[in-house]
Write a structure and sequence with these properties.
By secondary structure, this protein is an alpha+beta fold. The chain has two domains: 46 residues, no CATH class; 49 residues, no CATH class. Helices cover 37% and strands 15% of the residues. It is built from four helices and four strands. Strands 1-2 form a two-stranded antiparallel sheet. It has a two-stranded antiparallel sheet with strand order 3-4. It starts with 5 loop residues before the first strand and ends with a helix. The relative contact order is 0.11. Bound molecules: zinc ion (2 copies). One zinc ion (ZN) binds next to helix 3.
Length: 106
Amino acid sequence: MEFTDRVLKCIDCGAEFVFTAGEQTFFYDKQFQNDPKRCKPCKAKRSRSARRVRPETRTTCSACGLETTVPFRPTQGRPVLCRSCFQKQQAQPHGADFAARTSASA
Ligand SMILES: [Zn+2]
Ligand SMILES: [Zn+2]
């Protein structure tokens, strides 16, 4: 089976991309029935975002009171920190007096 480069159109961004003979050989080997539908950047974007699918829960930061989203379900009664407060707390060895320190410096 001989393959030649083909130009396909990405269904996401509409850009034309080359389905190379080498890739077609690969598809043929794998017995893939369908042509690739997306250009490489869009494919990369999709696989990245697919991996990032996590439940995002809207909540309020216990430290600064800002609305934030967290990639987990907050446990009732446990403080939830926004990203920046969380990082600030991580940077401090004593997380317990974190709240007192921030209110003092604010
Ligand atoms: Zn694309
Ligand atoms: Zn915060």
